[in-house]
Prior knowledge:
Largest sheet: 10 strands, antiparallel
Strand content: 25-35%
Low-confidence stretches: 4-28, 197-202, 204-210, 267-290, 465-473
Number of helices: 11
Number of strands: 27
Structural class: alpha+beta
Helix content: 10-25%
Mean pLDDT: 83
Radius of gyration: 26 Å
Distance between the termini: 86 Å
Amino acid sequence: MANPSLLSLSVCLLILFHGCLASRQQGQQQNECQIDQLDALEPDNRVEYEAGMVETWDPNHEQFRCAGVAVARHTIQPNGLRLPEYSNAPTLMYIVEGEGMTGTLIPGCPETYQAPQQGQQHGQSSRFQDKHQKIQRFRKGDIIALPAGVANWCYNEGNSPVVTVTLLDVSNSQNQLDMYPRKFNLAGNPEDEFQQQQQQQSRGRRQSQQKSCNNIFCGFDTKILAEVFQVEQRLVKQLQNEKDNRGAIVKVKGDLQVIRPPRRQSERGFESEEESEYERGRRGRDNGLEETICTMKLKENIHDPSRSDIYTPEVGRITSLNSLNLPILKWLQLSAERGVLQNNALMVPHWNFNAHSIVYGCKGNAQVQVVDNFGNTVFDGEVSEGQIFVVPQNFAVVKRARGQRFEWISFKTNDRAMISPLAGSTSVLRAMPEEVLANAFQISREDARKIKFNNEQPTLSSGQSSQQMRDDA
């Protein structure tokens, strides 16, 4: 019989070891935000498929390791279908361009879209009746939220390419694997889009065996799958289709024929068919009864100017999406912000209270500066359409449009991300007494008053041109 004292000591040592290991892992993750230099990044990897392509940013880059995220950009050609897949991390997908439809496959939820019965014979339909889970249309400006492990597919039903930017929050508590983005494919044989070299090395001997078949069915025995689906083995081999070289985005012959409600005219404008006046009125007042996991809203459009939270004519606008207007984000612990700056306008210097911000340039160019806790400028450069940069939590950032217009989408790692401006009517300096400012900066009270009150705009500012600033000096 084991000595109780030794057993207790072993348990204590085991707990201490795991506690130290957890602390060390947490410390390593925190140390990854010791950033001296930020960059505006282009995708590192491109994989072309039959009906589109996937571009990814290196998840090992220090900016993404700091924020604990991975980012991909998908381009789906007309009549292109992105095959169903799921990932190990919660996901936000922003529709940069195009329109189409998508299906999110939640386990255990009912198949609420059903084909009408065509006839009855002895109490049964004479024709097979298809049914499936709900399908949603998407359009430019939509944010689609996906929990970890929930499968999703997309189809481009328009006449122009669909372009999406997808953020995977690999540091989220829903991901209990590791800090690498993992895509699990339910069909096709796509490549490893994130080029996870460390994982490829760890797979070693298995890698060569799985080159020709990369979907989830490939690793199962054919006989077992035939028994599970109660079909012939030849059909199972189609699921494992090793000769399918189309990739993750395939061309649909003709149009994708699925059961779905008819398109409404309002969909072609800014109003969504899925949000009535009643829904807009009760948005954010979730009592847990109206919204279950099977009926929860997964999509919201933030392109419509009328939904702006901050709006200044001829200067710009900002629209925020958080758990107050899309409750699923509370579960995912993510949010988003879409901004537009006009005519060399700027978004005043500010910092994020409680989140990292991953910023993608949607249109135009901007001059961006980011400052760390030592007062060092860790980024001072131009951000162009298609580039990404990360603003770590509490780092201060300012954006100024270059030319006529700059548009961006920011993904934030908190469901209620907040900012604190350094200038303007809602700024931290505006909230200070004049005497505090005067003593802090060794200036007169009159100058302190100018700093507090000269800029009455809250977050966006028309600013001055460089020549005007030199003339004032």
